[in-house]
Amino acid sequence: MEDRCQSVGARAQVGGERPAGCDSVTAEGAAPETTVFACAACGAALTGPLKRLPSVPDAPAYEWWEAEQTGPSPATVPLGCYAIETEPYGPPLVVAEAPGPVMPRHGTRHDIDGQPLVSLGPRGNIVVNPDDSRGLTTSHASAACCGATPDGGLNQLCACGTLVATLCSDCCLPYELHLSPDHVRAVRSRIESPRSPFAATETPGGGR
User: Fold this and answer.
1) Within 13 Å of residue 14, how many CA atoms lie on the same side as its CB?
2) Rounded mean pLDDT of the chain?
3) What's the average model confidence in pLDDT over 141-164?
4) Which of 170, 108, 104, 109 is nearest to 138 (CA)?
5) 113: Cβ–Cβ under 8 A, 6 or more apart, which residues?
6) pLDDT bucket at 32, cuts 50 / 70 / 90
7) Residue 145: CA count within 13 A, CB half-sphere
8) What pLDDT was estimated at residue 141?
9) How far, in Å, CA of 109 to CA of 2, rounded?
């Protein structure tokens, strides 16, 4: 935990831009397409309508060690948006050939022998702002000083009791919710006109 926080702190000191808002990903004059993610087991909506970003933004710079109150960092993904994580995320963690981030936007981690670790977890997670989630409760979270970490894998329960996502909310880590593409389905919608309702179509998996 210590080397992870130190590395993330060093990243924050060199600065970084806050992620652009979702309006930037909609072409001028185009009908915006949005996606609602639902539990694959029961169909309950887990998010509101979200627009897709071309990639996961860099985590915003945040001097967590100087914060007056403990709590999550600023969210990586803006409200109303989602992005697909192309790199491995979460457990298992294995010894790496060379030092580097244990997983995207995280600091370095080492085992008890001082060897660097890297994630061999799943790819294709749907990364959203945790504040865009609906009806989720935390279960079996790998805890840190003031929030959850992804080290233990899926830790967010749908109301039906299915584990569907992984929350990362510790103060010195990126504030992100990773929906599992194997446990959610995407319902895509397009606004045809200001007076028309959403025309929705379901797609399997995470909308990839």
Assistant:
1) 6
2) 80
3) 87
4) 170
5) none
6) low
7) 13
8) 65
9) 9
Burial class (CB in 10 A: 0-12, 13-18, 19+), 61: middle
Q: Please name which of 171, 145, 175, 173 lies closest in space to residue 71, comparing C-alpha atoms.
A: 171
pTM surpassing 0.90?
A: no
Q: Is the pLDDT of residue 101 over 70?
A: yes
Of 137, 113, 125, which Cα lies nearest the Cα of 181? 125
Q: In sequence order, what are the residues at sequence separation of 6 or more whose Cβ sits closer than 8 angstroms to the Cβ of residue 36?
A: 45, 47, 48, 49, 50, 186, 187, 189, 200
Q: What percentage of the chain has pLDDT greater than the value 70?
A: 68
Instruction: Tell me which H or E stretch contains 189.
Output: strand 184-191
Tens of pLDDT, residue by residue over 125-140, are: 999 999 999 999 998 7
Q: Report the SS3 class of residue 54.
A: coil
The one-letter amino acid at 100: G
Q: Rounded to an integer, what distance in angstroms lies between the CA atom of residue 194 and that of residue 192? A: 7
Q: What is the pLDDT of residue 62?
A: 62
Query: How many other C-beta atoms are found inside a 10 Å radius of the C-beta of residue 74?
Result: 15
CA distance 27 to 109: 40
Q: In the chain, how many H helices and how many E strands?
A: 1, 14
pLDDT of residue 119 exceeding 70, the answer is yes
* Cα distance between residue 206 and residue 163, in whole Å: 15
- What would the two tokens of residue 201 be? 């179509």
- DSSP characters over 68-97: SS--PPPBSSPTTEEEE--S--SSPEEE-S
Determine contact, residues 75/132, Cβ cutoff 8 Å.
no
